[in-house]
Design goal:
Layout (H helix, E strand, L loop, with lengths): L34 H9 L8 H8 L4 H42 L4 H16 L3 E8 L4 E8 L4 H4 L2 E3 L3 H9 L3 E3 L12 H10 L3 E9 L2 E10 L7 H33 L4 H26 L4 H12 L2 E5 L6 H10 L3 E3 L2 E8 L2 E9 L6 H40 L8 H6 L8 E8 L6 H21 L3 E5 L2 E7 L6 H16 L3 E5 L12 H18 L6 E3 L6 H5 L5 H19 L3 H10 L4 H8 L3 H15 L6 H21 L5
Parallel strand pairs: 14-15
Antiparallel strand pairs: 1-2, 1-6, 2-3, 4-5, 5-6, 7-10, 8-9, 9-10, 11-13, 11-14, 12-13
Helix pairs in contact: 2-3, 3-4, 3-8, 3-9, 4-8, 9-10, 9-12, 10-12, 14-15, 18-22, 19-20, 20-21
């Protein structure tokens, strides 16, 4: 039976089922609704096959609870399948880029490399046709060089004038263009020869990206479908990456051709030939090293070390803010390394985004080939940074989805394995923190951008501390482990400070009380998050934006904010030192405090109530001040102390054994 046949979802495991009983994946042993979907995931079945276990369960009249469990398992399995498909697609894209870069490093046949680029672009974008055109400076137009999937001879021989058709417009403006219906798009100058060729090929949706050498366009890379289609931004960026590799392949081939011509014409200049050969050998060496780094997933420091050794200098990767601004902007605009005093600066960019710079220090006299080596190293660095960012974003999404499931009161026991893979221990003591930006945004776009930056900072913070983070309720929620001796208040304040530094705006953070054994109840995390949000709102109402706190930090208000009323903890924090002093010394400080407040805070009336000398009252109150702090008679502290005294008396009464 074919792999994705709908009936394959009902095929039992070998040896499963009893004689005379229908064996299928929709009727496994009780409590194992996930089994048929795990089998489908293992076989790589199509999405349609996941409906079969539910349909069979309904046909057999199984209980509604069983069908609901199957529905839930099916939804989870489809999410897992979609995530796996997305990862496989991203891995295929990166693998194709790395393989193409390796082909470029060992370039022998330019046509073969360009054909491989076009084939991989067509395969990864899933288009009917892919093709590449090159500019002809002598004739002032652009012509077809390589096609893949084309069937029309007239189309394969097209020549486009600058500004004619989609390709001519890309070649003229050096910008990508995309259309979901070419013949209905009036942005392009249609000509009879071009339209006839496109019509012969039957193309409808077309995307074209420029092949750039510096700021010069040398050709265009296309992908096209014979039906209407909207190309996604990621697909256009991927095609642009292939175009960059194709341009590098052409540039390398031209460079090698120029070198061979120079060697043939300068037979008598042996010294120059030897120098040129040494430069080319270094370039080839660095190409091989960079290709190896790409294939084994090296980092930016590995690239800098390899180029430093080849160029016999010191190469460093720096953040954009640390590089000379003028030289960096020139390198970014020109697409070449530029000299800055005794250094060389090569911008590391990807899709117009500035990621940093490679800086070659103390090497003012740089050979052109070595200059291009530095530029190619910058391009490889951008590929590595993009790959690392993609992997980090994928991990952040997975962490966010796990925390969302915990907040939505999913069964935590089913999430234990997922948490372990992310190095998150659900049995450890954690605190749930609610974070929100306090800086006002000028418009909706700026507000959305600020929220994305907050989520990115929270995700990075959670990943470095073996925690989880997700975006929720216009802010971010974090689940962070508590270190021994740490408190929820201290963790909230550190988190507010770290997030505020990362996003350059005040961030207010409310924390729940410490929670442990998150798998004990399904609503543990959700309840803790509700408490954290109450603390967050309390901070904002009390005029403390940009601060962090937990319920324990609000005095008697903490009893109202906390998810569980920690009366004993409140009493201990408020008058615990006085209680302990009385127990150790046998004094009557608590009794004196009760009488002092009952008598309107009058020492004279208090001494009559206690039948002691007024100096005794003064001495006792002085001792209380040393234990509780000089501000113990301020209105806010007086209210807390009186409440704590009453709760202490109440707890003493309830703890007293009953008389029989």
């Amino acid at each position: 039976m074919p792999r994705d046949h709908p009936q394959s979802a009902a095929r039992p495991l070998a040896g499963a089922g009893a004689p005379g009983r229908r064996a299928d994946a929709a009727a496994p042993a009780p409590g194992s609704a996930e089994t048929p979907f795990l089998e489908l995931l293992a076989r790589g079945a199509s999405a349609d096959a996941y409906e079969q276990p539910v349909l069979l369960a309904r046909a057999e009249g199984l209980p509604a609870e069983r069908i609901a469990a199957l529905q839930q398992a099916k939804a989870l399995a489809l999410r897992v399948r979609a995530e796996l498909e997305g990862r496989r697609r991203r891995e295929a894209e990166l693998s194709a880029l790395f393989e193409t870069a390796h082909d470029l490093a060992g370039l022998r046949d330019l046509d073969a490399v360009l054909q491989a680029i076009v084939q991989r672009a067509r395969s990864l974008l899933g288009t009917d046709v892919a093709y590449l055109s090159l500019n002809d400076p002598a004739r002032g137009d652009t012509y077809m060089r390589v096609t893949e999937g084309s069937v029309a001879a007239r189309f394969q021989q097209l020549r486009l004038g600058m500004g004619e058709g989609l390709g001519g417009l890309v070649a003229q403006t050096a910008r990508p263009y995309v259309t979901d219906d070419y013949f209905r798009d009036d942005r392009f100058r249609h000509t009879r020869s071009i339209d006839t060729g496109v019509q012969d090929e039957g193309l409808v949706a077309i995307v074209g990206v420029p092949l750039m050498l510096g700021h010069h366009v040398i050709g265009v890379l296309f992908a096209a479908d014979r039906r209407a289609r909207v190309f996604e931004r990621e697909q256009i960026a991927l095609l642009g990456s292939f175009a960059a590799l194709a341009a590098a392949a052409i540039d390398t081939a031209n460079l090698l051709a120029e070198t061979r011509s120079a060697l043939a014409g300068l037979e008598r200049a042996n010294e120059i030939i030897r120098d040129r050969s040494a430069v080319i050998e270094r370039a080839s060496d660095v190409h091989d090293r960079l290709a190896e780094l790409v294939l084994r997933g090296g980092g930016t420091h590995d690239v800098a070390a390899a180029v430093s050794e080849v160029l016999d200098g010191t190469v460093e990767f720096t953040e954009a803010a640390a590089a000379p601004a003028g030289a960096l902007e020139s390198s970014r605009a020109e697409g070449h390394a530029v000299r800055h005093r005794d250094d060389w600066i090569a911008a590391v960019t990807a899709g117009g985004e500035l990621l940093g710079a490679l800086v070659l220090r103390g090497h003012p006299d740089l050979d052109p080939v070595d200059q291009r080596t530095l530029e190619r190293a910058a391009m490889v660095t951008s590929l590595l940074l993009l790959a690392r960012r993609s992997a980090a974003e994928a991990e952040h999404r997975v962490r966010g989805e796990l925390l969302d499931d915990l907040l939505d009161a999913r069964d935590p026991r089913l999430l234990r394995d997922r948490a372990a893979r992310l190095r998150a221990d659900l049995d450890a003591t954690h605190a749930v923190l609610a974070a929100r930006l306090e800086g006002g945004a000028a418009d909706a776009d700026q507000e959305a951008d600020a929220r994305r930056r907050l989520w990115a900072a929270a995700s990075h913070l959670a990943a470095t501390r073996q925690g989880l983070a997700a975006a929720r309720d216009g802010g971010a929620v974090l689940l962070l482990p508590l270190a021994p001796g740490d408190t929820a208040t201290e963790l909230a304040r550190r988190t507010a400070r770290d997030l505020g530094t990362a996003v350059h705006e005040p961030v207010t953070v409310g924390a729940s009380a410490p929670v442990g054994h998150l798998t004990a109840r399904s609503d543990t995390v959700a309840s803790a998050y509700a408490e954290a949000r109450r603390c967050l709102e309390a901070l904002r109402l009390l005029g403390r934006p940009g601060d962090g706190s937990a319920a324990e930090d609000f005095g008697f208000l903490g009893l109202l904010l906390a998810g569980e009323r920690d009366i004993e903890g409140f009493v201990d924090r408020t008058i615990g030192q006085v209680v302990a002093y009385d127990e150790r010394r046998g004094t009557e400080l608590l009794r004196t405090l009760d009488a002092y407040f009952a008598c309107g805070m009058s020492p004279a009336r208090t001494k009559d109530e206690l039948h002691v000398h007024v100096n005794t009252v003064a001495q006792r109150l002085e001792r209380v001040g040393r234990l509780l702090g000089e501000d113990w008679q301020s209105p806010a502290r007086v209210l807390e102390i009186q409440l704590a005294l009453r709760l202490h008396r109440l707890s003493a009464v309830t703890a007293r054994p009953a008389r029989h």
